[in-house]
Structures are given as C-alpha cells and as structure tokens.
Batch of 4 targets.
Target 1
Amino acid sequence: MHQLAEHRSKIIGATAISFSAILWGLDGVVLTPRLYNLNVAYVVFMLHMIPFAIMNAFLFRQYKYIHSFSASDYLLLFLVALFGGALGTLSVVKALFLVEFKKLTVVILLQKLQPVFAIALATIILKEKLKKYYLIWASVAIVASYFLTFGTRLPNIGTGSNTIYAALFSLLAALSFGSSTVLSKKILEKYSFHTVTFYRYGFTSALLLIYVLFTGLISQISVTTPLNWLFFMIIAITSGSGAIFLYYYGLKKVKAIIATICELFFPVSAIIFDYLFNDQFLTPVQWISAALLIFAIVNLNIRNTRKNPKKVVS
C-alpha cells in the first residue's frame, strides 16, 4: 500500500512539473511578448513583485520563519532567488526581446543544456546517483530536443549580433535555471513548497527592487500601459507564481534529475503554441523529435517510480 502511494505521489509530482513547464511555454509565446515596449529588468521585477504582493494576502504567516531560518537556509534561498528568479528570468526574457519573439528556437536552446547542468549539480550537491537508464533517456530527450528546435540544419548564429547575444543569454539562463532546480530541491527537504515559493519571490523582488531603483528603471511605471498591467496580472496568476507553486509542489515529490527532464515540456509546448498563435509550422523531423522527447520523459518517470519493494520504508 505504501509503495502504491509513493508511486502515485511521484507521478503527481512529475505531472505538476510538466504542467508548469507548459504554462511557461504559453508565457514565452503568448504572454511576455505583450510587454515588449518595456525594459527587460523592469519587466522581470514586476513579474516577481506583483505575485509576491498577492501572496502576502494569504501567505503572510510565512514571515514566522524569518527568525528560525539558519544561515545556510538564507544562503540557499538567496541563491535560488539569484539564479532562478533574477539571473535566469532576466536572461531568458532578454533573449526573447533580442530576437523580437520571431526566432524562438534560439531561446529554446536554453532548455537543451539545462539538464546537463542540473544533472551534474544534482550529482555533486544532492548526491543523487547517475543510473544507466537516466543517462540513456536523458540523452534521448536532449538529442530529440535539439532536432525539435533546429531540425536537420545546424544552428545559424551568423544572422547578426542579436542572435549571438540571445544564444549567450540562453546559455546563461540554462546554467541559472539548472542551478536553481538543484538548490530548490535542497531547501525543499526542510520547508514546504509554499514557504520556498514565498521567499523565492520575496528575495527576488528585493534584489530587483534595488537594481531598478539604482538604475532609475522604476520610472518605467509611467509608460506602463493598461494592456501591460493586464498581462502582468495574467502572468502573475498563471505562468508566474501559479506555475512556480506547481513546480515546487512537484519538486518535493521527485528527484531533481527527473524534474529537469520534465521541464523539457517547455520547448514542446512553446513550439505547439507558436504554431497555434503564430502560424509557425513544424517539419516532419520536428514532429518525430517531439514524439521522441515525450516518450523519453514518460520513460524517465516510469523508471523513477519502479523501486525494489525491499528497499521501500514506511
């Protein structure tokens, strides 16, 4: 009975992470492009400040942990906010803005290398063992993701400096999000996903508030249109804090290695949404790659839930 409950819990966790990744795909193709008239840092600040303000209305009891956090807890929360909140989000939004939302393949590149960083960090920091099936299916997922993005052609970085810079920002985002996945998993060993989400947004908001005040970007409030505010609110509830809550809920139930592979639903959903909303068509190679990617993710989740009954403890 306990084994069945654990099996179900891991499937629910993987599903929650996958759905949050789909919401991020919707955000990158449909929602964030509506904020293109604003500065990147200001956009990322608002995307954290607004959800954090909303959270204070029903998660204010989380402030009780301020006096009980250890120095290592504060450090982990700060690093999660720095990498996953500030650097990661700034990098991916900057990359999107650089390609003017016309070449999502450059930005989706970040999802190809993120598992590499996260798997390495999970092995070092979380002491997770790399099993043979992880390496096989993770490799299939990463290779399939590459062909899903670029098809049979090599990435073209000779179309201008913006493309090159977008690729570099994508790589920085990959490293940042991969680091955040592992660090988040570590802090979630001690605290609930509510607590980690609340303080991630709080710390990130504080970091970016300092930045926008210091640079004078806070003045962007005066040029924020009613439509911008509407999309800020939609993102805050769905692909912002809503997706992060789902992500951390799932992350408590599965290993960081599985989590980072489930996040590959972002490129799958982004390409599907790009087709639905922007009339961008997939080639046969990309469709086959999408199918292989989903197949690899499913196999990783199935293998992760299979445990030797003798090793299960209550």
Target 2
Amino acid sequence: MQPVKYNEVRFTTDDRNESLGKKIREATTMKIPVQLIIGPKDKEAREVSVRTKDGEEKVALEQLAEYLRRL
C-alpha cells in the first residue's frame, strides 16, 4: 500500500481570513468533491471533518488515508 502522497490527490489549503461558513459555501459552489475541515477541537482530538456531497463525517486522522481511498 502506497502512502497518500504518492497517489494522484490534488489539494489546496484555504487559509484566507474568512469565516469557515463562507469557505465551505465557496468550495461547495466550486463543486469541490471532498472538503477536509480541521479546527482546533479536531486537531486536539486528532480528527478530520470530511464533507462530501453525501454529508459530513468525522474521521480519525489515522484512518483518513484509508477513508479517502474508499471514496
């Protein structure tokens, strides 16, 4: 099994000084298929919020690579 960094995954980081809601709305409007949201609580819990067209789900950081492969 190859690490995610060797697969063809394109990503960008939105670190603009905008509200989270605005960033999510814009990403949804741009039809970005998968959004990873990491806030202070997520970081502390070592989790990532994964948003897709089917909804949002919390995923443990250790399980993120496998979760993304299954999408």
Target 3
Amino acid sequence: MKKLTPKDYLKEAYPGSSICAKTVINWIKKGKLKGEQTPTGRWLVVIDEEQSTKINHMLKMLETSGV
C-alpha cells in the first residue's frame, strides 16, 4: 500500500494534465478514489501497489502508441 499527496498522485497517474489537487480531494470525499485524512487535516490518496503497477503499465502503453 502506498500513500500519496493529491499533488503527487496527479503527477503519477495524470502527468501533464490540468486536474488540480482539490479535484482529487473531491474524488476521495465522493468515494471515487480511496483516501484518508491525516490528524492534521491533510488528504492522502491510498493506492494498492497492484493498482499502481496497472496504472504505470497503461501509461506506458499510451506513451508508446502516440496517443
């Protein structure tokens, strides 16, 4: 299991997109994305290592296809 800040999650999952960190926090609050809030109020995206590997594989496929 890996925990990332919303900003780091965007860099990994959606590189170069215009999605902001607040959108990721809203996804967590709506249950579209797994996450948690720290005692200090910060939000973290919780990613299963298996899911992270799939995302990286899909990104590599997109990059090689020229999309």
Target 4
Amino acid sequence: MSRTQQATRRQFLQSVAAVGAASVLCPAPGRAFGYESPNERPVFATIGLRNQGWAITSKSFRFADFAALADVDANVLGENVGKVEKAQGKAPEAYKDYRKILDRKDIDAVMIATPDHWHTKIAVEAMYAGKDVYCEKPLTLTIDEGKLIEKVVKETGRVFQVGTMQRTESGERFLQAIALVKAGRIGTVKKVTCGINGMEASPVIPVAPVPEGLDWDFWLGPAPKVAYRALPELRVGYGGGVPLFSNAHYSFRNWHEYSGGKLTDWGAHHVDIACWALGATDTGPSKVTPLDYSLPVEYKDGHPVVDDRYNAATRFNIRVEMPENVEMIITSEGDNGILFEGTEGRFFVNRGKITGKPVEDLRDKPLPEGAIEEIYGGKVSANHTANFIEAMKSRKQPISDVWSHNRMLEICHLSNIAMRLGRELKWDPKTREIVGDAQANTFLAREYRKGFEINM
C-alpha cells in the first residue's frame, strides 16, 4: 500500500461520520457498510490464534487486511501465518510478544482471542496505544477489570466490540426474541431461564513437560506461576488436537485462575440476550442465590484446596433477582438456550431455533415493520466484525459495547463467587459492590503476577 493510500485509509477511519454506520446504504459484496474503496480497508492484527482467534480472523478477511499475528505458541503462530497468507495473498508478520503489535503505527485495530485472564491487560494497553479493539467474550476475569476497561474506553475514545456475536448473527433469532418481548407478545415478563450446560469434572492431572514451542510462562502471564499439567488423551472436535485434560489450551475455561467455567463461557452469551430483552443492560441484579450446585474440588474461604483438577462448577442452578420482580434462573440442566415466560405466553430461543406459540402467532400477526432494526439500532450487519468496522468509521460504539457486556457479566461473576463461598450475595447495582460481605468483595479484583501488571 502506498503512503497516499495509507493516508487516505487513516483519514477515513479517523473521520467522524455525520450519521451512524448502520444507517448507510448496503455495502458492495465483501465490504462493511460505508466502505466503498479498497484503500479504505482497515489494517488489523490478531492476538491469540487458537480456535476463536482463527474464527474471528477468517470471518474478517472480507473487511480488513491482517498485517500481524501474535501467539505464545510457535506452532499455532506458524500455522496461522500460513493460513492468513493463503487467504489474503500476503503473509502477516509473526510475533510471540503482542506488545510488538501495539508498537506498530500502521495497525488500526486488534482482535484479542487469548485466554480470558489476558483480555484486560492487552485490551487496555492496546487502547492506550491508539488501537480500536475487538475482544472475545467473556471480556474480563473480574468485575473490577470491567470497570477499568470502561474507564479506558471513555478516556481514549477507542471503539471497542465484545465478541458476543449472538447480538448480530445466528440468523437474527435472538434479535427476534428481543423484539417479541419488547412488543409485549408474552405480556409482562415474569421469568427467564438461561440454559448454559454443565461440564464434566476432570481426573487428577499430573505435571507434564511443556509442549515444544509453547512459552508457558508467557501463557500464564498475569496468573499465578504454576506447573504445566496435562494427560496424554487428545481432545477431538472443536478445539481438538490438544490434551483433553490440561490447565491450558481449550481447557483453560475450566479453571478459575484463567476463566469462569460455563458461567462466563456460555453465560456471557445467553445472560447477555436475556438482560437485553429485559431492558437491564445498564443495571444489575439485587440478589444472586446458588440454589444447588457441584464443585469438582474442595474449597476453603472461596479458594480451591488442590491445584491438580478442574475447579469451576460442573452443575448449578442459580436464582437471580432482576429489576421489575423478574426471576432469572441460570442452569446447567435442559436445552442450551433461553426460555422467556410471561403473563401471556412463553417461547424458547437458541442458535438453531426459536419456538413457542408467540412465534407461531407471527404468521397471522407479524412484528411491526422495522422492529428488528429498531432493536439493533439500524440495519443488521453482515456479521459481527462488519458491525465493528462500521463503528470504527462512525466512532460510535458497536452493538456489543463494553458497558452492557460488563453489566450482564457481573451476574455471571457473582454467580461464581456465590458458589465458591456457598452463600447468597446481595448486590448494589449503583455502587457495583456486594452488600455487607467484605470477604465476597475481595473476589471483585485480582492481583497480577509481578512483571505482568497492566502498563497504563
């Protein structure tokens, strides 16, 4: 790209559009709304490439050029450099250290798909480096990290998209569900159940040699220093080719040191849609009560007493008291999806279906024209990345903004804290603190390992 082309593209991205990105004309094939010239394609980099890292990168080739990739696993990095080169005809630069990407002035935005315990540090440093950010869900490991990200987004003016793509994709089923609730098709909402599945406990996982090419210390980053653990059996299917049981790779989701189990993995999707439908994206619950649950290891004062097995909850039923006397149930039982129940009906929605009498009634009584667009805030984008790039142009926050994400994710974090401590928690959504429980409030933040603090 010539210097003139670079200047044109950068001027374009930095300009503030007179109207919202979602209201402009439908784009030419392969471009986001408002992007009509190849010179306007933004330059991206992806940090963290396994599984979702590749998924969000490959979905973005139509809209952006990838100049760099970063991963602490040399094998994953090399494989993805080859795939990106094949897709776009030019190899991206490869880095183990993501900070080299943030130092580059030619990169407009970063996509972050590392394990959860890295999200906040990289996202904050990227914004201070002048980058817009697309970060996979769940955005944070703690509630206070969410507050920090909100502060930095406001301070820097960067555009920040969270990867809760159900807000954009899945055939607009979730948007239709929200529109049904908003249109009063089930009357007054009384209960919403979020089915997010459970997980299996692990056997004892022994210390094992670190796989060749993986920088284990850098993978741990802000988390406590521990030995790498793995069993030889390999995972198959999505996320396959790595140890089925380990404290890294795909299994990081099952450890509180790096993630929040199913509560933040799938809860970040379905609790998000539930809160959006309830109009609770700028507030929170008053109480979170663990009705029944199973933890795979013994806990003392909220901390696991062993470090050789998964420690996130395997089974749970949690009651959340939401505004307007709505009861939310988050459960590992039943079908994965969301059941909305009101005074005049009920319906169920997930990524593959939306069913129930209110849905059937749409044949004779469709939703008002423009109801979906009103929910979304304009024409629904081609995909979640397109919405992000449109927001980069307009300098308005995208459909999955950090404020609504953090509010709903607080419910998921509180659910985990309640189970770890074995008691109900009262929550003040104004101060964003747990009421009358000093011990529980210590779980709202975490200490970063020395040498991996956030550079602000």
